[in-house]
Write a structure and sequence with these properties.
The structure holds 2 protein chains of 2 kinds.
Chain A lengths: L18 H16 L11 H14 L3 H21 L5 H30 L2 H10 L4 H30 L12 H26 L18 H22 L3
Helix pairs in contact in A: 1-4, 1-8, 2-3, 2-4, 3-4, 5-6, 6-7
Chain B lengths: L1 E10 L7 E8 L4 E5 L6 H9 L1 H4 L3 E9 L2 E2 L5 H7 E4 L12 H12 L3 H14 L15 H14 L4 E5 L7 H16 L3 E5 L12 E6 L2 E7 H5 L3 H6 L21 E11 L2 E12 L3 E5 L6 H9 L8 E4 L2 E3 L1 H7 E4 L12 H6 L10 H7 L15 H14 L4 E5 L7 H12 L6 E5 L3 H7 L2 E6 L2 E7 L5 H8 L2
Parallel strand pairs in B: 3-8, 3-9, 6-7, 7-8, 13-18, 13-19, 16-17, 17-18
Antiparallel strand pairs in B: 1-2, 1-4, 4-5, 9-10, 11-12, 11-14, 14-15, 19-20
Helix pairs in contact in B: 4-5, 4-6, 5-6, 6-7, 15-16
The chains are: A mainly alpha, B alpha/beta.
Function (chain B): Probably part of an ABC transporter complex. Responsible for energy coupling to the transport system.
Family (chain B): Belongs to the ABC transporter superfamily.
Main location (chain B): membrane
Chain lengths: 245, 481
């Protein structure tokens, strides 16, 4: 199927979390795994974090993405564990670098994939409104969400056009691949953006009245568990920094 | 209802689409058709009513526009939005949300209506437009016709007094146009005022009461639909307008084609869903083949498979005793896409057409460019050209790359009579030399340039016949014109 994994299908949404919970999970994940803020004493939290995106992707029926994540993560973890003691010099540096980057980035990236692919634009705006953010921030961000699938659509058309012109890796124009892709992509997205803004304005976006939102969001049991988990992690962190642990 | 007095407008940094001293009164409940050649100012006129001019598009503006007592030129757009609802040409760029229900809710949410009211309005417009089954779906997976239905429903939910439609059918098939017609009749029966700018006219005969023809930014005539339908075919053509009725479709004489190519094992499916199911099919080499069928009949899958763009596709094509696989077809075919912007990559027209060129063709560059009327444009940036010129650049690059099969995806959507005829002449000029496939919903284009009809439905070939006067009834029957 053409298109992107960022398209939300309302049928298979998996374990339904409140959008705010998802954002909190994402922040916690980036702080601990990507930011590497957890010290020696908190390293017991890391496995939980790494399993989390896998489980969530499974509940959202993104089996392929989940499997890919599992293979890449365990692969690079094992490589790091088994190969590094036997390697020296440049190969060691290379393996350590690649495996290190993958193990650090993958969990947060996969969680982000889950969050974006399971949240609709209106859920996102509703959550942001509940957090009392300004419309000036919410509207551009929701347009951005709307734009991912558009860009993906445009991109696949451009790819098809490039194939028919024989522009591919290994061809004589391989060096210009990026340029050839970006020029039409930019022209098309700018045009779409322009039309999109005009359409949104004729439908009353940006008025002075407070927008309502029909999307029902709210906290459930699963949200409470997730929030407690995040709070626990940050709690440990504070205790650790304070030197209590 | 709508009062326009001495309105003039000129876009900043552009000479096209100017309006010159327009004065007009439209009564409540009237349904007005705006027609005219491309660039006559139809779209600009619609923007005057929904307030995008002067609030969004910048330029010099003078005169007054009032809608139901509200001065649109001085009112903020979100106030005008309560009174005037707009449906645009391109369904992919008028959606703010990713799923249909939130999209229909969007306009009402902006008005700050209470949640229960918004929900009942969603249900009401979905029922009225007969699209309940489309609620809760991903907009990116809908067909063009379904998207336009969602666009209508989302405008309808706001319950404005005036509806403005700017070329709403350019991406629609015949059935989707019928649906749109029903929607318009519903709005009309509710006493709404409708203003519609359109190239295709035949479907509006029973809807519009009044026809305004524009030329170079001025209203050249403003008459009732009855008087307009009495116009002779020659007069309609001399005005640069599309036909009103099928009796005027005359099939042009065609070059006979003898050789055939054989398509084998054309089967393809997306995620277990069969999209294409053709065991074998013989097609004329050197013919101009119109590929027709409803939205979702498999026309685009067919063309993507033919071009070799689908990686998992196993079908083969044989002609002249040689069998071509997917990869070799990729070298032989070129598709001119509906949005030709996707396939122009370079900084000048000359670079563009030389990219991926066969080395033997080097001498022919200037000949082919001048043959397509591009010789003076060879230094220009492709993106700065008009739509028709871009299309010709794409064709020139395909010819120079030695492509033998050209596929055109909706080459005339949104074109006026003159430009459609130009495209038809261009396509006919390749007959006998290249094999052309034209995916189209435009019967006027087909009678002018196509030699054969390939009618697809549900992924299979429903029928296939040469386009002659004897076969005309089969063809016009499909287009219901």
């Amino acid at each position: 199927m053409r298109g992107s994994f960022l398209q939300v299908s309302t049928e298979h949404r998996g374990l339904v979390f409140d959008p705010r919970t998802k954002l909190l999970l994402l922040i916690t994940m980036s702080t601990f795994v990507l930011g590497g803020i957890a010290g020696e004493k908190l390293s017991f939290l890391l496995p939980c974090f790494c399993v989390l995106p896998f489980v969530l992707l499974l509940t959202a029926r993104k089996y392929k993405t989940a499997a890919l994540y599992f293979i890449l993560y365990t692969g690079s973890y094992l490589l790091n564990l088994l190969a590094t003691p036997h390697l020296t010099g440049f190969p060691a540096f290379l393996v350590l670098g690649c495996a290190g980057i993958l193990t650090r980035f993958m969990p947060s990236m996969m969680l982000a994939v889950y969050v974006v692919s399971s949240m609709t634009v209106s859920e996102f705006t509703a959550a942001m409104q509940r957090l009392h953010l300004s419309e000036k921030i919410i509207i551009p961000m929701s347009v951005m969400f709307r734009f991912f699938p558009t860009v993906a659509d445009e991109f696949s058309s451009i790819n098809a056009a490039m194939k028919m012109r024989g522009i591919a890796f290994g061809g004589k124009n391989a060096g210009k691949m990026l340029e050839y892709r970006l020029i039409p992509l930019m022209t098309c997205t700018v045009k779409i953006g322009d039309e999109l803004s005009a359409a949104a304005l004729t439908r009353g976006l940006g008025g002075t009245v407070k927008r309502t939102n029909v999307c029902k969001i709210g906290f459930h049991a699963q949200d409470v568990i997730a929030i407690l988990f995040c709070a626990g992690c940050f709690g440990f962190l504070i205790l650790d920094v304070a030197g209590v642990l | 209802m709508i009062e326009i007095q001495n309105a003039s407008f000129r876009y900043a940094n552009s000479d096209s689409g100017v309006l010159d001293e327009i004065t007009l009164h439209i009564k409540g409940g009237e349904c007005v058709l705006l027609c005219g050649k491309s660039g006559c100012g139809k779209t600009t006129f619609t923007r005057l009513i929904n307030g995008l001019i002067p609030h969004y598009y910048e330029g010099e503006m003078s005169g007054n526009v009032t809608v139901s007592g509200l001065d649109v030129t001085k009112t903020e757009l979100y106030e005008t939005a309560r009174l005037v609802g707009s449906v645009f040409q391109n369904p992919r760029s008028q959606f703010f949300c990713v799923d249909t229900t939130s999209e229909i809710a969007f306009g009402c949410e902006n008005l700050g209506l209470p949640v229960s009211e918004v929900e009942s309005r969603i249900q009401k417009s979905a029922n009225e437009l007969d699209m309940v089954e489309l609620l809760g779906r991903n907009i990116f997976k809908l067909s063009g016709g379904e998207k336009q239905k969602v666009a209508c429903a989302s405008v309808s939910a706001v319950q404005p007094e005036v509806f403005v439609l700017d070329e709403p059918t350019s991406n629609l098939d015949i059935d989707a146009i019928e649906d749109l017609k029903r929607t318009l009749l519903l709005w009309k029966s509710q006493g709404k005022t409708i203003i519609i700018a359109e190239h295709r006219l035949y479907w509006l005969k029973e809807i519009c009461d009044r026809v305004i023809y524009m030329d170079k930014g001025k209203i050249s005539f403003d008459i009732s639909m009855c008087d307009f339908t009495a116009f002779s075919d020659e007069k309609i053509r001399s005005l640069g307008l599309r036909t009103l009725c099928s009796d005027h479709l005359r099939i042009a004489a065609k070059i006979p084609v003898a050789e055939t190519m054989e398509l084998q094992n054309y089967h393809f499916s997306y995620q277990q869903k069969d999209a294409l199911c053709i065991d074998s099919l013989a097609l004329p080499v050197g013919g101009v083949i119109a590929v027709i069928g409803h939205n979702g009949a498999g026309k685009s899958t067919f063309s993507r498979c033919l071009c070799g763009l689908e990686k998992k596709f196993k079908g083969k094509v044989s002609f002249d005793g040689v069998q071509y696989t997917r990869k070799t077809m990729l070298k032989k075919c070129y598709m001119v896409m509906q949005d030709v912007n996707h396939q122009l990559f370079c900084e000048s027209v000359e670079d563009e057409v030389c990219l991926g060129m066969d080395e033997d063709n080097e001498k022919d560059v200037s000949g082919i460019l001048s043959g397509l009327g591009l010789a003076e444009l060879s230094e220009r940036h492709p993106m700065s050209l008009s739509g028709g010129q871009k299309q010709r650049v794409a064709i020139a690059s395909a010819i120079l790359a030695g492509k033998e099969i050209l596929i055109f995806d909706e080459p005339t959507s949104g074109l006026d009579f003159e430009h459609m005829e130009q495209t038809a002449r261009l396509l006919s000029s390749f007959a006998g030399r290249k094999t052309l496939f034209v995916i189209t919903h435009d019967p006027e284009l087909i009678v002018r340039c196509c030699t054969h009809i390939l009618h697809l439905e549900e992924g299979t070939v429903l029928e296939q016949y040469p386009l002659t006067n004897e076969n005309k009834a089969r063809f016009t029957g499909f287009f219901k014109v």
